[in-house]
Amino acid sequence: MPGPIKEIIDLGHDFFNGMANIGGAAVAFWPIKTIAEQRKITGGKVGIEGRMMLMPEHCGTHLDVPKHFVEGGTAVDEVPLEQLILPGHLLDFTHKKNGEAITIADFEEAEEKSGQEIGPGKATFCWTGTDGNWGKENFHIDRPHVPTVTAEWLVKRKITLFCTDLIGMDDPAEWWWPTHAMWLENDICMVQQLCNLDKLAGKEFLFVCLPLKMREGTASPVRPVALVM
């Protein structure tokens, strides 16, 4: 049995009105009830505040599932929780620069340094240190990327879940997103736009990533956390 939880680390970005996202779709939160308005209506008996939310499934820190690319593929509500709550394996690629490919050799080197084998039953973390650029101009393209040859190698290693602070894994020049396709066609879900991965360095942790239970969903915003043991 694992030991007691020593620390809980928040790995998700905030969601807020007008936030940037890779598709450029609207993200909005607006009041449908305000405390002042409700107190006026009820003669001061009650004050209630509530907001409406408008956002794409693929927004901020989110989970991509096979249905995103695969017709009839696994939807958000169909992903087993065993694939979303599992030990984390942090791999350090913070030395990679914008535009550079993260190669098989890079993964092999990071694997050796981590002291763990890349494989099934874990959340495989690709830590690039780019979350500091989140929301800035061109943050969706000013980053390293994972080419399809590397993605195919990870498929052969039978990873269970791919997690990263990158906003997108594909080469920005490849607008058809072949790396996405490689993983989703092989039933490997992805958690994108994580943050605070530097706080996981050298630590053993359980990754917990729970999406909204949306029927037929192709993705879902998430609030992921690491439970440090």
Describe this structure in words.
With 229 residues, the chain is of the alpha/beta class. The protein has 2 domains: 22-55, no CATH class; 62-228, Putative cyclase (Glucose Oxidase, domain 1), CATH 3.50.30.50. The protein is 15% helix and 22% strand. It is built from 4 helices and 11 strands, in the order ββαβββαβαβαββββ. It has helices at 35-41, 104-114, 148-156, 178-184, and strands spanning 7-10, 28-33, 50-54, 62-64, 85-92, 123-127, 161-164, 189-192, 205-208, 219-221, 225-228. The strands form 2 sheets. The protein has a 9-stranded mixed β-sheet. Strands 2-3 form a two-stranded antiparallel sheet. Helix 3 (148-156) links the parallel strand 6 (123-127) and strand 7 (161-164). Helix 3 packs parallel to helix 4. The protein is globular and about 70 Å long. The model has no long low-confidence stretch (mean pLDDT 94).
Q: What's the structural domain tally?
A: 2
- Unreliable spans are none
Helix fraction? 10-25%
CATH architecture of the largest domain: 3-Layer(bba) Sandwich
C-alpha Rg, in Å?
19 Å
Q: Count the strands?
A: 11
Shape: globular
Give the topology string: H per helix, E per strand: EEHEEEHEHEHEEEE
Distance between the termini: 11 Å
What portion of residues belong to β-strands? 15-25%
Overall structural class, as computed from helix and strand content, comes to: alpha/beta
Instruction: Round the mean pLDDT to the nearest integer and report it.
Output: 94
